[in-house]
Amino acid sequence: MKSFWGLIPRNILKYKKRTVLMGVSIVLAIALITSLSLVSDGMIKNNFKNAIKDGGGNYDIRLYSNDYSNIKQTRSDDLFNKVTIVSDVGMYNIPNSKYKIDIKAYDDNSKDILNFNLIKGEYPKNENEVALEDWILEKLPKKYNVGDKIKFEYEVNYVNGRTLKSEKIEKEFILSGIFSFDILGKDTSKIGKAYVNEEYFLKNLKRYDLQKISYVSLKDEYTIDDALIILGLTTSYKDIMYEPNYSKVDMIKTISLLNKIFNILFIFIAIVAGIVIYNIFNIMVTERTKEFGIFRALGSSPQQIKSLVILESIFIGIIFIPIGMIIGSTFSKIFINEIYSIKNILYIPLKGIKVDLIIGFLTIILGAYFPARKAAKISPMEAISSNNNLSLKGHKLKASLQSEKDKSIRKNFSFEMNMAYLNIIRNKKRFITTVISLNIIIIMLFSANFLIDTMNPITLFKRNFKYDFVLSSFEIEKPTNGIDEHIINSLSEIEGIKEINKSKDISSHLKVSKDAVTTKGFKYLKSQCNNNELELKKLEEGNYSFPTYPISYDDKELENFTSIIESKKIDIKDMKENPSIVIAQNVNGNKYTIIEEGDLVDLNIAKYNNNGELIGEDSKTFEVAATVKGKFLSNKEGNKDIVPIMSNKCFEKFLNIPNYSKVCIKIDNKADYEKIKNDIKLVIKDYKDIVLKDYKSELELNKKISKNLIITLYGFIGIISLVSIINLINVMNMSILLRKKDISMLRAIGFSNKQVRNMILSEGFFYGIFSGGLGCALGTIISFFIYLLTKSNIGYQIYWKFPLINILIVLVSTIIICITASLIPARNLFKESIVDSIKSIE
């Protein structure tokens, strides 16, 4: 028995070519799984990193209050793991500059929760110390170093009743340190941060009704949803406003979706790997049929034969699975490091190692088990006389080939094609498994093409960024802010600008009648109350008020709505002269309201005097001129639910908003792009709240993102294709190997080399036409289902069209690949003479 089991390492070493062939397929499959696990790990980590950057820190919930005694209770709440309280201090306007410094008081936990990174010096320990953000330090009139004294005359804004008050305070600080603060959108910000300690606030500013924010992270046993429910039921928090870290909430949803997608990909890869490994081991067992027959004749039991094959496969897995892991990790480091920042070349996440081992050994054992079971059932005499092919069942073939359906298919075939068709009928299982593996690739290719066409950052960018330059301002509700007519006139004088489109939007509330609110809308409004008794009472009294961002356009832009509104047309002139609006609702499924044409709604907005001071709230009644069909997405992130749309003139006349939030510019084709860009910068250089974006710069940014997406998707499809093509070559090689005697006999009775080659090419053609045709059909259907599933669940309009070009390309490519794969093993047939080929088999 000892010598029998000693055959395992001897066979692995003796049949090196066969072992390497099996090893290559295993290595490629494991390398693919490893790369996928690294990308999965990298994408999840990047999403977490981006969520932390987007929110400015690693926290779960923000709680707001102007009462310090109320907000400080968060520090002792058992619900929270870490807490930091940030208090407003004031705003310092840098002289002769468009930049400002936002001074806030932070406690010691801030640097652990928020995205602070100390560059030089130290954080303030005493009340007369301040630390400044690195980039804003460079905007000050003179150069300051750590230890220098710096004087700020900052403005404290606080609310007295319903009136916004302000007071200027002058204070000299010692610059204790310099830090960076990582947050999304920082590059376009004109406001830097100043860090003072909590002691300064408590001694000097506690008497002011300033806002305090408590950033909290939850204990592991609580989810964000759990915590929000608990806060809503806790009476001590009834006077505190709170909201989740939406970036983190979205991140959790995204990671959940990514995990589902990658789990599906792992299943696809496991299927492909299983098919490849099954075919490889089937080749191994079939080649060794006579060998197993001799073992049986010498007394080996069927169980020993089965164990021999399975143990050999496990030994081969032990050798090649780690190699596949190393190659996959190296591949990821070289080709996708730029995307996912894989630092250690041999780093593989624990989940990836587990999946590698599970899929690797499971597919190897299952792939070897069924051929091993077949080998164990072979009788010694049958095996020795079998010519290594036990699947040739003449009576079954005869019945199949005599069917009317089969005859109608084959009647126009040449003799060579009939022989190729006969071989496919004789090896249906191998044919089906190979077609399935190729179909998986084609389906993934169609799905990837659809996703890239739909979600490609370049496609989305070009769809949304339709202008050469875009100016934005985010504080137009104050009469002193926004893009005014003086700027518009200056832009109009720039040579080369041919079109300027203007729009406005402000934060507001849309008040509707009780009858217009749906059940879903009522639940939404109730959730917005956060269990606040005052807000719930207003809701019970019939105050149905939805947060929204009304948006307005010029006449030309409004005319574009004609194609997407329920009515046949809208009266642009009436919308300019009267309080008339169009309503869009973007809620998936049931809408929040059943607002219809002719209904009256109220818009509530903050009211300011000419000096920009808040003096209360104003309400205006508007008539609904039309409603939008489907989705409408404006330039405001919060504009997702109900969107009032009106003319710019109406906005100014009835909401008292003279300035614009967004100006879009198109230039002549022959105009000097860079010169116009510089001219625009000169026009807005003295305006603090205006941001310029240009098409070329934004396109380059999106090209980089698009490149990463394409590399990731097509990289995996390419590797899967390589694995399946090697499988296809092995299958064709096996087919020729098992028929070597048959083919030699055909050559002996006059079959020319050309006819043999045509027969093998025909077999490759059948693999290609069946795989390509079925794969294209399934790929088209599945891409359409993906479209149906995603069109109402993502934040932009997507399209689907019949992929005729893709079908033709994939079909032709599949046929060419299959024919080429059949030619590679066919070359070895003609290296030996007919007599030598027959003798070698005997």
From TrEMBL:
InterPro entries: ABC3_permease_C (IPR003838), Macrolide_Exporter_MacB (IPR050250). The chain crosses the membrane at residues 20-39, 261-281, 308-332, 352-372, 431-452, 713-738, 764-790, 802-824. Pfam families: FtsX. One of its GO terms (cellular component) is plasma membrane. Residues 264-380, 716-833 form the ABC3 transporter permease C-terminal domain. One of its GO terms (molecular function) is transmembrane transporter activity. Keywords: Cell membrane, Membrane, Transmembrane, Transmembrane helix. It is found in: Cell membrane. It is a multi-pass membrane protein. PANTHER family: ABC TRANSPORTER PERMEASE YTRF, MEMBRANE COMPONENT OF TRANSPORTER-RELATED. Belongs to the ABC-4 integral membrane protein family. This is FtsX-like permease family protein.
